[in-house]
Specification:
single chain, about 350 residues, alpha/beta, four-stranded antiparallel beta sheet, 12 helices, about 15% strand
């Protein structure tokens, strides 16, 4: 690649450009005083805080070392070996990686050339054999959202299965949360993470909210001491940091718009419209280029973006994903797009 300019900036993981929640960091520091003790295996303090936050009870909440740990528990608790798990293609790769690791069977709702990751393909894919169906809204990697009416309809179509609504990026969208329809659909679980809007990706904390009968099974499936005091107190404190979340959302919204504007002026690229997440998916339309070449082009300029060929099944070699950059990085992103 030759000499790469410094500093190298990662725009591939959806990390918070403002850093960690200041209140979350205060909670982490408070947790250091408890490091000599084994933690409460139920993470009661965090479950109570989340329950207050969403207007339910702790019995509706399970916490994990990131959403990913809860996803693994869902596979084990709700699908027998060989059981069918439905998901979009392309999608967050951890879903199908866990399906393979846990010996279950994946059924893809294929988005095709149009990247249609909405309810239509999913409705056609699920059946009486479905055990779990994953819906990511905003979707990874397109950033597109499902309407809550469609989530509810999916729950009605497969009452024997668990519908998982992954809202990892919901703070960057103005859509209502799936929390609003939980009471009517006991086969729905809504997942959230502290990695994005709260800037605590390295702390590894996520939670799920569902009917207490669903939570009871997941509490049995999870590791015993999966969260320590740094995670519990840090995440609980971050939930009160509305100011940090608001600043993050404003910065990301502006950065996303600026990237879309820059890409719209580059004839070799096309914006995949509809993103309500903290990234933009771009289609490489120049037949002389592919996603890996575009990835290397950015890397030579010290910018790490996501190559769709490497990161997503079914996306092929025509797409790259770029996080919304902070203002100080935006000129470098614009120049890389212009120089393509």
């Amino acid at each position: 690649l030759g000499e790469v300019p410094s500093p190298i900036v990662k725009l591939a993981s959806g990390e918070n450009p403002l850093g960690a929640s200041p209140k979350g960091l205060e909670g982490v520091r408070a947790g250091m005083a408890e490091l000599m003790f084994y933690p409460d295996w139920t993470a009661t303090r965090l479950r109570r805080k989340v329950a207050d936050h969403v207007g339910l009870t702790p019995e509706h909440v399970v916490c994990g070392a990131g959403e990913t740990e809860i996803i693994g528990g869902i596979m084990r608790a709700f699908a027998e070996p060989g059981g069918e798990i439905a998901m979009a293609r392309p999608t967050f790769p951890v879903y199908h990686q866990y399906v393979q690791a846990e010996g279950r069977t994946v059924r893809f709702a294929d988005g095709g050339e149009a990247l249609d990751v909405g309810p239509g393909p999913m409705f056609e894919t699920v059946s009486e054999r479905t055990r779990v169906a994953f819906v990511t809204s905003p979707h990874n990697p397109t950033g597109r959202c499902w309407a809550l009416e469609d989530v509810a309809e999916l729950c009605r179509r497969i009452p024997h299965a668990l519908v998982v609504l992954d809202e990892a990026y919901i703070h960057f969208s103005e859509r209502p949360s799936g929390f609003a329809v939980l009471a009517e659909h006991p086969n729905l679980i809504v997942l959230r993470t502290f990695s994005k809007a709260y800037g605590l990706a390295g702390l590894r904390v996520g939670y799920g909210v569902a009917d207490p009968r669903v939570i009871d099974l997941l509490m049995r499936a999870k590791p015993t001491w999966n969260l320590g005091p740094l995670q519990v107190l840090g995440a609980a404190a971050a939930l009160d940091d509305d100011e940090h979340v608001a600043r993050t959302v404003a910065l990301v919204s502006e950065g996303r718009r600026r990237v879309e504007e820059a890409a719209a002026s580059q004839p070799k690229l096309r914006v995949v419209d509809g993103s309500e997440a903290n990234y933009v998916l771009l289609r490489v339309v120049d037949p002389e280029l592919d996603s890996t070449q575009v990835f290397k082009h950015f890397l030579r300029r010290g910018l790490v973006i996501k190559d769709g060929t490497v990161s997503y099944l079914g996306l092929g070699d025509r797409h790259v994903r770029i996080d919304a950059p902070p203002p100080e990085v935006l000129p470098r992103v614009r120049e890389a797009i212009r120089a393509l």
